[in-house]
Amino acid sequence: MPPPEPVRLFVFSHPNHELAVFGLARRWRPHFVFLTDGGGPDRVADTKHGLESLGLLDRARFLNHSEGSFYKALVNRDAAFYEGVARQVREAVAAVRPSQVYCDAVEFYNPVHDICLPVVKAALRGTPGVEVFEIPLIHQRPADGESYLIQRAGNGKTLDVQLSPEEAEAKCGARDGIYGCLREQMGDLLATVPKEHLSREQVAPAVTALPRPGAGRVLRYEWRGELLRKRGEIDRVITYAGHYAPVAERLFA
Asked: E strand or H helix at 132, and its extent?
């Protein structure tokens, strides 16, 4: 008799991130936790539509923290806020009892994406035997300026799954017909990704220590935040060393 299928929980910082593993979700039928509203109800609605198309909406839990509250907590180095989010994720873990948890990868593209793994680590504290995996979303190629890699890990050992033609067709159909908010936000970055690329989905065993950018590297969210500050659109800029790392390290502890 084959071993029982693992119980899997996918944890995402934003709704719509499930599109990166739409084929695996269709195949594995995991449970889901979404930490934020992704900036508004439209993204939540798209995710509910996408999960409903898979018959998985009843397996999803939406914490509905505003995206702004996550940024504010990082600016203020408010680790207690994120420990509260981790307690909510822990409740989902207790209810589902997963043997594997998958979450957004730390990629230095968006600090809200990057806080997801530390939150999961804090949520699983005292829960031995649960395997943790990262799901690559988007990261900037350090040597190529404004060049990004979609749904592929930047480095390290990955576990690749080739989707069947039917699974790939369902994923591309969801991208083009359901996830309008994500297409609008990402533009050509997502719209032009070929089916052959989307047909291979990737996860990787989660890192055991907080990743650090290379010396002298200016992260996308740092230079973009500085640009917004100069325009007068924000008052303070989230930096890796000054804001993200102190919070994430406390959650990793």
From this structure: strand 131-135
